[in-house]
Amino acid sequence: MQKTINVGVVGCGYWGPNLIRNFRAQAGCDVKRVCDLDVERLRHMKNLYPEVETTTEFSDLVEDKEIDAIAVATPVNTHFELAMKALEAGKHTFVEKPMAMSTSECDEMNRLAAEKKLTIMVGHTF
Fold first, then answer.
1. Sheet with 69-72, edge to edge strand ranges
2. Which of 43, 96, 106, 118 has the lowest tally of Cβ within 10 angstroms?
3. CA distances from 97 to 38, 50, 52, 71, 84 (A)
4. Diameter of the chain measured on Cα atoms
5. What residues have CB less than 8 Å from 78, skipping those under 6 apart?
6. What are the φ and ψ backbone dihedral angles of 97, each rounded to 5 degrees?
């Protein structure tokens, strides 16, 4: 039997809700927790998905041993820091485009993912 993958999503503004909806629609995938600094956005997510835990603290996703992967859907200037923290915590990581602010940041994320034998993926809708 296939293991269910537990996902955490950081960023519930413009694009994060689309990721949450799509992850929830996938067999074998559960959105365990979502994170945003805006409590009104979290309240909205909780109304849509009552079973999903919400938090304003990214560390709650990173430290959650049940979360296998983290999706980052925040402003681009936060992608590198959040993705690196997720990878350092041993989480597979999905980052919305653009992946980071520079190719050197992208290289560093790829290096860490390879070192830890984790998957890092960039979201490209179009």
1. 53-55, 29-35, 5-10, 69-72, 92-96, 120-123
2. 43
3. 21, 28, 25, 11, 15
4. 40
5. 72
6. -75, 150
